[in-house]
Design brief:
By secondary structure, this protein is of the alpha+beta class. Helices cover about 30% and strands about 30% of the residues. It is built from seven helices and 15 strands. The chain has helices at about 25-30, 45-60, 70-80, 150-160, 205-215, 225-230, 260-280; strands spanning about 5, 10, 30-40, 40-45, 85-95, 110-120, 130-135, 165-170, 175-180, 180-185, 190-195, 220, 235-240, 245-250, 255. A hairpin with a 2-residue loop joins strand 1 (about 5) and strand 2 (about 10). The protein starts with a strand and ends with a helix. The model has no long low-confidence stretch (mean pLDDT about 100). It binds pyridoxal-5'-phosphate.
Length: about 280
C-alpha cells in the first residue's frame, strides 16, 4: 500500500479514515504521540520511541489501551504493508471518546489509539541548513510529547516564510530546542546541548548522538547555552528522527559554524553507520 492508518482497530488508507468528532483530540488536543522513521522497512530506535510514548501518556494520566508488545507488533505489521522502504511511523493516544467536557470523566472507558505509516525521506546530511530564532513561548511541559502543537506550527511557518528549515527557540538568552527538533553546538571539540528538563523534549536522536559522541571520546556537556554561544559556536546542528545530524550554516541571515568540519563530519558518519547497522535485514 502507499500508506496505511489505524484508529481503534480499523485500518485503511489515511485519506479514507474517519474519526468521531467526540474524540478528545478534536476539542482538547487531549493526547500524546511519538514518531519514528523507517529505513529499509525497519523502524529506527523503535523501543526508545515506544518507551517515550508510554512515558508521555503516563505524565498526562492516559493509559495506552494496549501493552507495549502489542503496540510494537501493530507498528511492525503496519510498516510491512507500506511499499516505501523509508517512511514516517506515527503513533498517538488520546483520552478517548465522549461529549465535550474538560474533566476526565467525560472521556469514556478506553483511550483511543491512532497510528499511520506514510512514505517520507530523511533530511539529507550533505547540505547546509538555515534557521531563524524566536522566543520560546510554549508552556512549561515541553518534555511531554503532546499533540498540542500550535506554537510549533507557528514557528515552522515562520521559518518557511523566511526560506529557512527550522526555528531555534530561546527563553531569554537560553537556547532551548527547535520547532520540531533539538539543537546542539560544537565548541572547542566538545558537544554542548541543553539538559533534559521541562523546557525541551528529550529527543531520541539527541540521546543517540550523545551516546555516540561519548563512545568516540568527544566530551559532552549537557548544560544550558546562550544565543550568543550559539552564534559563536564552531558548529551548530539539529536532530530529530528524520534529521540525524543537520548542519546549520546560517541563523537569522548571519553565517554560523563552519569552524570544525572534521568533527561534525565524524558525528554525521557515525549517525549514518548506526542507521545502516540497525536496519540491516538478516
Ligand atoms: N524537539 C521537539 C519539539 C520535537 O518535536 C522533536 C521531534 O518531533 C524533537 C525535539 C526531536 O525528537 P526525536 O529525536 O525523538 O525525533
Amino acid at each position: 500500500m502507499e500508506n496505511i492508518a489505524y484508529y481503534n482497530g480499523v485500518t485503511g488508507p489515511i485519506e479514507q479514515m474517519m474519526v468521531p468528532m467526540n474524540d478528545r483530540a478534536c476539542f482538547f488536543g487531549d493526547g500524546v504521540y511519538d514518531a519514528m522513521f523507517t529505513w529499509n522497512h525497519v523502524p529506527m530506535a523503535m523501543d526508545d520511541h515506544l518507551a517515550r510514548f508510554y512515558r508521555s501518556a503516563k505524565k498526562v494520566d492516559i493509559e495506552v489501551p494496549v501493552p507495549v508488545d502489542e503496540l510494537r507488533a501493530l507498528v511492525l505489521s503496519l510498516v510491512s504493508r507500506v511499499d516505501s522502504p523509508t517512511a514516517m511511523v506515527y503513533v498517538q493516544v488520546t483520552r478517548g471518546i465522549g461529549p465535550r467536557g474538560h474533566a476526565y470523566r467525560f472521556a469514556g472507558e478506553r483511550a483511543s489509539l491512532w497510528a499511520f505509516v506514510r512514505p517520507d525521506v530523511l533530511d539529507p546530511m550533505d547540505r547546509d541548513y538555515r534557521c531563524i530564532t524566536m522566543e520560546d513561548t510554549r508552556f512549561l511541559h515541553c518534555d511531554i510529547k503532546t499533540i498540542n502543537l500550535l506554537p510549533s506550527v507557528i514557528y515552522a511557518q515562520r521559518a518557511e516564510e523566511h526560506g529557512c528549515d527550522e526555528t531555534i527557540l530561546h527563553r531569554g538568552e537560553r537556547v532551548t530546542e527547535c520547532a520540531h527538533s533539538n539543537v546542539h553546538i560544537l565548541k572547542d571539540g566538545a558537544l554542548r546541548t541543553a539538559p533534559c528538563d521541562h523546557l525541551i523534549l528529550p529527543g531520541i536522536t539527541r540521546a543517540h548522538r550523545i551516546a555516540q559522541c561519548r563512545q568516540m571520546g568527544i566530551p559532552v556537556i549537557e548544560e544550558p547555552f546562550t544565543v550568543a554561544e550559539l552564534m559563536d559556536a564552531d558548529e551548530v546542528f539539529f536532530t530529530s528522527c528524520s534529521a540525524l545530524c543537520c548542519r546549520v550554516r546560517e541563523i537569522d541571515g548571519r553565517p554560523v559554524g563552519g569552524q570544525d568540519p572534521e568533527l561534525i563530519a565524524r558525528i554525521q558518519r557515525a549517525a549514518w553507520d548506526e542507521v545502516l547497522e540497525e536496519t540491516r535485514q538478516a
